[in-house]
Structure formats: structure tokens, C-alpha cells
Amino acid sequence: MDEPPGETKALMFSSFLPLPFRILLLVQLGVTLWFMLNLLLYNLSSSINILQLLNLSYTKHNYAQLDNHVLSSGEFATTIPADRKENLRLIKGIWATLRSISIFNFVCWLIFKGLQYYGKDLKMIYYSILLVSFTHLFYKLFYKTAATPGQIRVFTTMKRILCGSINSRSMRANDILISDSLVSFGKVLNDFALFVWCYCIGEASAYDFRLEFVVLCIPIFIRIKQCWYEYSITQKPQHLLNLVKYSTGFGPLVVNSLIKNRLLSSSAEERDSGDLIQHLTNLNHWWYFLSALNSIYSFIWDIKMDWHLQLFNKVINPREKFSVLRPYKAYPNIVYILAISIDFLLRFIWVLKLFIINEELRSDTKISYLHIFSTFLFGYDVYSFGYHIIEILEIFRRWVWCFIKLESDWVQLKYEDRAVFALNELVKDENNKST
């Protein structure tokens, strides 16, 4: 692909790692973090069983819906929890997939760069290599094969999620992990749409901001539909509040589209008179306000509802005693403090947009490092290295979220098991007394 024009050309990043290979790298990063997550949870904790949380097993006898002649299907949840040692099989399977796509993508990148260097008129071959790379990636990650129940589970889960459905009865943790991760991969999904646009329409034609808006909204729409479904069957207000949380993500996207539309439709008179600047300034104020609303709501939800920590309990109920964490934990306190700090910083990293170097500051010899760093992250377009860093940071933030989320779900599961056990023992005692 040709190097994009403009200031980002000077960064040489797009020349070294073209947009399609950046997409492949980000998806590969997601698989790497999922592998590390399972490896850490298995080795650092002697109790957490990921397969039990996902209601997945590699032993078909753990599925009550099946008989001895039918292989286990990802559409089913286990009724007998998987043995913790089965997680090693999950880890080995993820590692095999990661190794395969890493080697294949690297070889395709080498071929691509070689052809790009020696063959100036072989654009169709360039795109053929890219299509082969994406096909291999989708096949290894999402294609339904009879190899393992894990691969079948990924296929059926993705099919269910892309339709906006959720199995909240027996696979809620399974579906939520993928659905929320898809939200964090929203920019990567948009990058893929941009790649398809360049392939079908041409690089000379500007990417339609309306298509960009639709693509970025897809993961949010999926979660909203899932929240509404859970609310409709349970009538629990927490699902409605979760729906509102995801709805706040539309605000910045709408304002961003209005800004781009205004820039494209403005006349020379408006630019000369200053009306355009004033209108864009007002839209920017709305963007900051709506982004703050979304970040604050989402951060509180992460801490209170997803991680079940007690940092905001006193805010919600002033009578409660102030506490940051929770009584039952699987990790040292420092792990949760770091997770809270990382989630906060990356939820509000957009604040750095306030410090982007503008035209007036460019002529000033005293430009702070904060302005330079902010401009590096947010001052360029989708082809820049800074934009890529923002995508990596969001994927990393989601990994931290998953790390504490799984631990929280496990603690909740064990706590419920203990409560049920205690209730059963109490009932037995009462029965013994009555007899």
C-alpha cells in the first residue's frame, strides 16, 4: 500500500508496518494477552479454574446434554465442572494458535515488503498477500472445526455475539468476555473497514466518516442489545443501567462525525469569517463533556459492578464504612490498586487531547513535553504510530479488566457455593432436630 500523504509520512511508521499488518498485529496481541492471562491465572493462583467459569470442558462426559456418540458442542455448557488440569490443554491450544498466526503473518510481511521494494507495479499481488493473511487469521481463530471443543466454542460464541445474542443462563461469563473485548477492538474493526475501503474504492478516495461511525457503533449496539435482552428476562435494573452505560459511548462518536461533516461541508466564506472555528469549538466542548460522562460512568461500573470492589460504596451509600477493596480476594492488595490505577489512567487518556500542539504553539520555542507527547498520541491520523499506541493501550486496559473480572467471578462463584453449602447444612440440622 502507498504511504499516506501528510505529516504522518515523516514518521515512516506506515511504511514499515502498513495498516493491514497493523490490524493483524493487534489481533495477534489480543491472542497473546489471552494466552498470558490463562497462563498467569493457572500459575499464580492454585484455585481459579477458567474452564469452570466458562462452563467449558474437553471431556464430553461433562456435558449432560450429550451421549457417548456425540462430540461436545460449544452451544452447550458443562454440568460437571472441568478438572483444573484441563486448563493446561486450553493454554497449549492457545499457544499453538498464537505460534501459527505469528509465523504466518511474519512470513507474509516479509514477502509483502520484498515485493513492495522490488516490484513497484504489483499492487494486486500486495493485496493478494494481505487477503491470504486475513483469511489464515480468521480460519485459525474463528473457523469451526472438529479439532477441539475450544475451537467450536469460539465459533459458536462469535456467531451468537455478532447476532447481538447472549447466553446469560449458562455461558454469561463466556459471552461477556468476548463481547466487551469486541468493544475494545472497535478501532481495530474500523481499521479493517478502512482497509476494505482502500481495496474496493481506492486509496485516493477519502474514507467515508458515516461508514466509520456505523462500524465504530457495531460493538456498542451488540452490548446494548445484550443488556436489553437480560433486562427483559430478569427485570433487574442493573442490566438497564449497564445499557445506559454503553449508550453514553455514542455521544463522542456522534460529535466526532458532526465535526468531520462540518469540515467537509464548510465554505470558504465560513472559514474566512471565523464562523467555522466557533462552531468547531462548540462541538469540541460537547465532545469533551460526553467523553467525560462515558469515562466516569464506565470507570465506576468497572470498579463497582465488574470487579465488585468497594471504592465507591460510600458514595452510593454514605452510611457504609469506607473501603477500597473487598473482603474476599485471590491476589495481594497491590494487584487491585495497580488495576484501578491503570483502568483510571487509560479510561481518561483522551484528556491529553487538550494539550495537542496548535498552530500558535508551533512558533513558540518553549513547547512542553506534555504537548509533544499529546500531539504524538492524538495529533495525527489513523496511519500514525501514536494512533497505534492508543489502540494497544486500550487492548491492554481490557486485559487488565479481564484479569480482575475473572478473579471476581471466581470469588463470587465460590462465595455462592459456600452460601449454598451453609444453607444445606442448616436445613439438615433443622430436619435432624424435627425428627
Automatic annotation (TrEMBL):
Entry keywords, A to Z: Membrane, Transmembrane, Transmembrane helix
Membrane topology category: Multi-pass membrane protein
Recorded GO CC terms: cytoplasm; membrane
Subcellular localization(s) per the UniProt record: Membrane
Top-level lineage group: Eukaryota
Main location: membrane
Pfam families reported for this sequence: EXS
EXS domain residues: 203-435
Residue ranges crossing the lipid bilayer per the database entry: 20-42, 94-112, 124-143, 334-357, 369-390
Name the record gives this protein: ERD1
Organism: Candida oxycetoniae
Lineage: Eukaryota, Fungi, Dikarya, Ascomycota, Saccharomycotina
